[in-house]
Amino acid sequence: MPDCVRMRLFAARLDCVGSGSRDAVRHMNAPQLVARDLHRSFEIGARKIEVLRGISLDVIEGEAVFLCGASGAGKTTLLYTLAGLERPETGTVEFEGRRLYEGSVAAQSKLRNEKMGFVFQGYFLLPELTALENVTLPGMIGGRPDKGAAEASLRDVGLAERLHHLPAELSGGEQQRVAIARALTNDPDIIFADEPTGNLDSRTGDTIIDLLLNLARDRRKTLLVVTHDSRLAVRGDRELRITDGMLA
Ligand SMILES: Nc1ncnc2c1ncn2[C@@H]1O[C@H](COP(=O)(O)OP(=O)(O)OP(=O)(O)O)[C@@H](O)[C@H]1O
Ligand SMILES: [Mg+2]
């Protein structure tokens, strides 16, 4: 996180600046991601489950936010809604001043491809492609394949020696590193990660969280991470908990 952002967060938490300067800080520091009154429910037969029940949230650029909650609490649903992947029934999401879920499907995909990186629950690597090909894929989809950038991303996650391995030839931790390299390859502004440590033992999970936090801080990316592990969640700048469809 940039030092200026860290200082503003610190000042806001301590409430130690005068109100005039606090307003100035807020103005300079407009949130990057703004969600308002999100509602989402699912109907299974006659039963309706209200998963998001009026969630509002602001995330500032460079922040590392961890979202916790029990299994089934709606973490993935909320993350996908914030990332433009699942339209809410009501409510709005704005990213860098642009409303998600508005405009053509192609424009929405372009925005996600250029500005957002995703690390999904369970890696989601294509099994028939090598590590390098998997990481090059978002660039190819965006019409800007860059093998050099993909190789650099894989180097940054410690996989310089595994470029031509297939996912099946990699350990779980290595596959998750490939997924992180893929999320970084288009140089996004924000990274969404859904249970990035979910399939890993706790030590490997710790290294993956370290890697994500360090890469995001060094490259000034915003990070939104879902985890059920509150032990890991305290390592971000802010921890949110979803319970009964609301944030606490
Ligand atoms: N497509 C769907 N159709 C019906 N119900 C769904 C659908 N997607 C999610 N749900 C329900 O919404 C609730 C929240 O699901 P979600 O996947 O967001 O939970 P989660 O907090 O990510 O859980 P986990 O920690 O197990 O991944 C669950 O009860 C789930 O069954
Ligand atoms: Mg989930």
In short:
The chain has 248 residues and is an alpha/beta fold.
Q: How would you explain this protein's 3D organization?
A:
This protein has 248 residues and is of the alpha/beta class. Helix content is 39%, strand content 24%. The strands form 2 sheets. It has a 6-stranded mixed beta sheet, sandwiched between helices. It has a 4-stranded antiparallel beta sheet with strand order 2-1-4-5, with helices on one face. Helix 5 packs parallel to helix 7 (172-184) and helix 6 packs across helix 7. The longest helix is centred in the C-terminal third of the chain and has 17 residues, at 202-218. The two termini are 24 Å apart. The relative contact order is 0.18. The chain binds adenosine-5'-triphosphate and magnesium ion (MG).
Shape: globular
Largest beta-sheet characterization:
6 strands, mixed
Order of helices and strands: HHEEEHEEHEHHHEHEHEE
Major beta sheet, strand line-up: 6-7-8-3-9-10
CATH superfamily: P-loop containing nucleotide triphosphate hydrolases
User: What ligands does this structure carry?
Assistant: adenosine-5'-triphosphate, magnesium ion
Question: How many alpha or pi helices?
Answer: 9
As for the number of domains, it is 1
Helix content: 25-40%
Please count the beta strands (DSSP E, at least 2 residues each). 10
Detail the poorly predicted runs. Answer: 1-27
Question: Which topology does CATH recognise?
Answer: Rossmann fold
Q: Could you say which structural class the secondary elements and strand pairing correspond to?
A: alpha/beta
Beta-strand percentage?
Answer: 15-25%
Radius of gyration: 18 Å
What's the N-to-C terminus distance? Answer: 24 Å
Question: What CATH first level would be assigned?
Answer: Alpha Beta
Mean pLDDT: 87
Architecture, CATH level 2? Answer: 3-Layer(aba) Sandwich
